[in-house]
């Protein structure tokens, strides 16, 4: 079981600025509760015991909320002094990780992945990185991930319109030790400089989950989350 999670919550949220001014994206209110709160509640219910928050833009707002509302949990903060890209943010946060494999996910996306099944898949494949993939139709905001017969990632297809396919849901099981063996600069893209670059030469696997998915990065989906999110998370009392 994976017990530690890195939540990437340092983005500027420029596309959401009109709907949510002056707040990091992860703090966007869904029925008066910050989005990141729903994410933490779900992950904790799924067995995550330690949380590493990768922060940047207006990090003090996020840190204050988390210390106040989730002070009973094991919280660690990794703060970027300058934007490092998704890869640089993960690399920095991984220096705080204590487990062999760590869950990595975005603080502005909710994907209802069964983490026990995901961890079992990741361990069975002895993967360097496992990606949680969401089947979708009429896709235009995302690129596609293609798998071979063993669920190994064979390629990533660029963003354009697709009738159907598997999208990267932004939830990863990452083996931190093998990730650190790569020679990365301090600032890089996890998607382009790790996933795309090493798709054919590292042990990258795709775990398909046809479950609820929402990315609040644009105003339309932020509004949709106001009615959908609580109905789809089904947190235990």
Give your account of this protein's structure.
This protein is of the alpha/beta class. It has helices at residues 35-45, 59-69, 85-94, 115-125, 176-180, 190-198, 219-233; strands at 4-9, 29-30, 33-34, 50-55, 74-79, 101-106, 109-111, 129-139, 144-147, 153-157, 162-175, 204-208, 213-215. The relative contact order is 0.20. A seven-stranded mixed β-sheet has the order 5-4-1-6-11-8-12, sandwiched between helices. 30% of the residues lie in helices and 31% in strands. Helix 3 (85-94) crosses helix 6. It is globular.
Key features of this structure:
single chain; 237 residues; alpha/beta; seven-stranded mixed beta sheet; two-stranded antiparallel ribbon; 7 helices; 30% helix
Separation, N- and C-terminal Cα atoms: 22 Å
Oligomer: single chain
| E-strand count | 13
Mean pLDDT: 92
Order of helices and strands: EEEHEHEHEEHEEEEHHEEH
What is the tally of helical segments?
A: 7
Helicity, in percent?
25-40%
Q: Could you say which overall geometry the principal axes of the C-alpha atoms support?
A: globular
Helix/strand structural class? alpha/beta
Give the amount of beta strand, in percent.
Answer: 25-35%
Tell me the Rg in angstroms: 17 Å
Major β-sheet annotation: 7 strands, mixed
Show unreliable segments. Answer: none
Give the strand order of the largest sheet, numbering strands 1, 2, ... along the chain. Answer: 5-4-1-6-11-8-12
């Amino acid at each position: 079981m994976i017990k530690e999670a890195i939540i990437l919550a340092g983005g500027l949220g420029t596309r959401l600025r009109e709907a949510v001014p002056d707040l990091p994206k992860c703090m966007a209110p869904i029925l008066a509760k910050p989005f990141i709160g729903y994410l933490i509640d779900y992950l904790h219910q799924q067995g995550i015991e330690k949380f590493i928050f990768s922060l940047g833009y207006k990090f003090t707002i996020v840190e204050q909320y988390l210390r106040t509302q989730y002070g009973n949990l094991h919280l660690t903060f990794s703060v970027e002094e300058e934007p490092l890209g998704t890869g640089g943010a993960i690399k920095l946060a991984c220096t705080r990780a204590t487990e062999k494999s760590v869950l990595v996910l975005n603080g502005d996306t909710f994907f209802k992945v069964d983490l026990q099944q995901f961890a079992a898949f990741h361990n069975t494949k002895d993967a360097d990185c496992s990606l949680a993939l969401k089947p979708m139709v009429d896709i235009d905001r995302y690129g596609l991930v293609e798998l071979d017969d063993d669920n190994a990632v064979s390629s990533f297809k660029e963003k354009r319109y697709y009738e159907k396919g598997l999208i990267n849901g932004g939830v990863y099981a990452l083996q931190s030790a093998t990730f650190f063996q790569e020679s990365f600069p301090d600032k890089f893209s996890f998607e382009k400089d790790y996933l795309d670059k090493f798709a054919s030469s590292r042990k990258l696997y795709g775990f398909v989950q046809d479950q609820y998915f929402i990315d609040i990065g644009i105003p339309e989906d932020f509004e949709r989350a106001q009615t959908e999110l609580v109905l789809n998370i089904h947190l235990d009392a």
